Amino acid sequence: MKRLPRDPIRFDIFNAYAVYGREERLSLRDPAATGGFVNQIRTSIQGSLSNDALLYGRRTESMFEAMIASIGEVEILKQEDSGEIYVSNDALKVPDFRLVLADGSQVLVEVKNHHQGTDAMKPFELDKDYLDGLVGYANVMKCDLFLAVYWSRWNLWTLVPPQAFHENRNKRELDLLNAMKANHMASLGDYSIGTRFPLSIVMYADKAESRFLGPDGSGDFRISNVEVYCAGTLVAKPEERRIATYLMFYGKWHYESDAKIVKNEIESVEHRWVPQEDNNQGFEIVGSLGEMFSTYYRFFTQEEGRVERLQVNFTPGSLGQLIPKDYKRDVLPLWRFRLKPSVPSGGQE
After folding, report:
1. Is 221 exposed, middle or buried (0-12, 13-18, 19+ CB in 10 A)?
2. What angle do CA 116, 122, 127 make, to 5 degrees?
């Protein structure tokens, strides 16, 4: 998958300027028009930056777009709700994205951020009229509609059809368990990855340098070598080291560390990632591609709990190439699971 070249600074802003000129009935060449437009843009941006709901919502849309492009399993991904739109029925609502899947079918996707707050199982809800408007637009376009809900408390994506929602007066609700049962993220190339544990990065101290601990228990050392381990076995192949490192940094396992001290000298420091629970099956799930990409995305767009950026640089298709299709393990065994949805209540598979 590749990004088609565009110049949004030039064309999108100029289109917005043209709309401003139309609404204000000003000549585009009038110096007063450019000054008024810049002032309006400044006011709009300042207002948006003070609206946390807007920032998190737009960050989630950008995260979904980058995640699907990075997985690279769809043929086309484009914004659906950009540019002028004329309709005969103003009750229609335009979804965020149009996707052409690998089988040639087209789907429309509306992306939503759901922050559960203190209630980890709080259902996601939409106004009935809003969901009906999205469904109406999809029917006119003769496309299936899906809602991509990001459950921020769990760092989890679900992609569900409207039939997965339940009626509640003038609302439509989706609880997490039903969302997971009706989840179609696999159709976009997402899958879960498991491996043996622990995964470790061990930094060895240079024995030619002083490595003694001081009276307060602190000490400095120079790193002589860094090694990666899976379940205590050295991971030497560069491809396996690359995969293991990504799983450690962006997976959902618990991080811990300790130092090896021999006769008051630092021998090594181990950074170790282990699952929260051992189900005695020889491996555990590290996370899905979507979960790990979202961890990466949040790390680079958020500082001290605040959204500081909406987008990050990424290479389309790179996440889908994390594990080659012909991967043959040496010492890093991998389990890959594509989770298929069950039939949602009142809907079709």
Report:
1. buried
2. 95
What band does 46 get if pLDDT is binned at 50, 70 and 90?
very high
3-state SS track over 53-72: HHHHHHHHHHHHHHHHHHHC
Q: What is the reported pLDDT for 348?
A: 39
Sign of CA dihedral 185, 191, 197, 199: negative
Listed by start position, the domains of the chain span 8-188, 192-337
pLDDT in tens, 299-318: 999 998 899 999 999 999 99
Length of the chain, in residues:
349
pLDDT score recorded for residue 343: 60
Mean pLDDT of the chain: 92
**CATH code that applies to domain 8-188:** 3.40.1350.10
User: Would strands 233-235 and 223-230 be described as parallel, antiparallel, or unpaired?
Assistant: antiparallel
| Model pLDDT for residues 174-193, shown as the tens digit of each residue | 999 999 999 999 999 999 99
Please enumerate in sequence order all residues whose Cβ is within 8 A of that of 275, keeping only pairs 6 or more positions apart, or say none. Answer: 197, 253, 254, 284, 285, 286
Residue 222: the pLDDT is: 84
Write the CB contacts of 197 (distance below 8 Å, at least 6 apart in sequence): 230, 231, 253, 273, 274, 275, 278, 283, 284
Give the β-pairing of 335-337 and 265-274: unpaired
- Judge whether residue 346 has pLDDT over 50: no
Q: Please identify which residue in the block is written with the tokens 């790990």.
A: 292
Q: Which residues contact 45 (CB under 8 A, 6 or more apart)?
A: none
Cα–Cα distance between 227 and 312 in angstroms, integer?
29
Residue for token pair 């006011």 = 43
